[in-house]
Amino acid sequence: MARGHRTQIKRERNANKDTRPSAKLSYARVSVQKACFVLDAIRGKDVTTALAILEYNPRYASSLIKKLLESAIANAENNNGMNKDNLYVAQCYANKGPTMKRVHPRAQGRAYRIEKRMSHITLVLDEK
């Protein structure tokens, strides 16, 4: 159990907060495995290179991650006053979200379950 006044606890928790610009996409209709293929391609790259990779990547997840990267760049410029030329992708990962369960009818009255997976994608930028 934490000690101290409630405002003091909040102040300490916010002092340890990560101040790097980031963007998060929750409930993206793409599985974690498919999103990670695209995220692995841009991890550690500078922002302009990452945008170029995402522009010409044929996977569906790349269009979602491109919009997310543009949002993180806008957050960095507007909220933190950073220059776009100095930014790079420090962290990017996809966590498992909820799964929609659907039923597909099969032969002889059977039913197969179809799982439509979702993911939460997070992108964190940093300056060089």
Structural write-up:
The protein has 128 residues and is α+β, with helices and mostly antiparallel strands. The chain has one domain: Ribosomal Protein L22, Chain A (Alpha-Beta Complex). The chain is built from four helices and three strands. Helix 3 runs antiparallel to helix 4. The longest helix has 20 residues. The radius of gyration is 19 Å and the shape is flat.
Tell me the number of strands.
3
Strand content: 25-35%
Helix and strand content put the structural class at alpha+beta
Terminal residue distance: 39 Å
What's the mean pLDDT score? 93
SSE string, helices as H and strands as E = HEHHHEE
What's the story with the biggest beta sheet?
Answer: 3 strands, antiparallel
Helix content estimate: 25-40%
**Number of alpha- plus pi-helical segments:** 4
| CATH level-3 fold name | Ribosomal Protein L22, Chain A
Shape type: flat
CATH class term: Alpha Beta
Cα gyration radius (Å) = 19 Å
Region (Disordered): 1-21
Organism: Eisenbergiella massiliensis
InterPro entries: Ribosomal_uL22 (IPR001063), Ribosomal_uL22_bac/chlpt-type (IPR005727), Ribosomal_uL22_bac/org-type (IPR047867), Ribosomal_uL22_CS (IPR018260), Ribosomal_uL22_sf (IPR036394)
Pfam family, one: Ribosomal_L22
